[in-house]
Amino acid sequence: MDKEIRSFLDFLQTEKHASEHTIKNYSVDLREFVRSAGTKKASEIRYLDIRSFLAYLKTKNYTKSSISRKLACLRSFFKYLTREKVIDANPASDVATPKRERRLPRLLNSEEVCHLLEAPSKNTWEEKRDRAILEMLYSSGLRVSELVGLNNEDIDMFSGLVRVRGKGKKERIVPVGKVALKTLKDYMRHKPPRDQGHSLRVPIYFNRFGGRITDRSVRRMIIKYVRRIALNKGVSPHTLRHSFATHMLDRGADLRSVQELLGHENLSTTQIYTHVTTRRLKEAYDASHPRA
Q1: Which of 167, 182, 227, 275 is catalytic?
Q2: Catalytic residue among 129, 241, 242, 247
Q3: Which of 128, 143, 242, 247 is catalytic?
Q4: Residues 262 and 128 in one domain
């Protein structure tokens, strides 16, 4: 199948404009499958060959997410061969994707969140910006990609609402808390003159060079403040999003409202937080009830 694989990888590069990382991963996955299939030609591969390959991966202790990725690669490969009329049907199309493990999200409790939000304490515009970013992430449960994409036109200071562009460019309106608005106003008053733009499309959050702050910069910034307060936990922008959702549910918010605030397309994605709140209730019960 070497010829077919080379053709498929060329297709990914020239027509799909796939990244080098993606092409490299697909090449590795396909070569691994070829070793499993032995001397069979592409036209001889059947449903059971795909299943046998997945079973082999399982014996090698691959995670379900890795197995799912390799199956997705095979589906794309054989779909391409079907389109090119090299084979008559896609043998991987009916193979079920392994159910992924649902890991409970990493969280901060309310006290830990407060310590982190108050960590940027120096009276500089950068730390005022950092405080505004942390407050916004926790106040509205934004993804970091959504936060760095915000422009002046997206925030309504009077009504306390922000327009967010989420996955698939879907827009949603979410509320911003009073504290987050206060820190945002404070930051915007102290931005360097070169960053003061009148255009509505000017980014809200700037880096020190006057450009839009990036996802990576926000992640590095959070790590800096986690170290400053000696918080012995791994924290990312998503940790604040998870904490936002869990704390909302802990305090009586309904699941549908939290779903809309987070911008989840399916309620099942939001339901992971009910497992967290249920676990915490069980822990509290076990620790407190005399007959637990």
Answers
A1: 167
A2: 241
A3: 143
A4: yes
| Active site (annotated) includes residue 198 | no
Tens digits of residue pLDDT in 103-136: 666 889 999 999 999 999 988 999 999 999 999 9
Same domain for 17 and 68, yes or no, is yes
Q: What pTM was computed for the model? A: 0.63
Total structural domains in the chain? 2
CA distance 47 to 37: 12
CATH number for the domain including 72? 1.10.150.130
Active site residue 225: no
C-alpha of 242 from chain center: 11
Kindly report, residue by residue over 151-203, the tens digit of the pLDDT: 999 999 999 999 999 877 789 999 999 999 999 999 998 887 655 555 567 89
Do 77 and 205 fall into the same domain? Answer: no
26 part of the active site: no
289 in active site: no
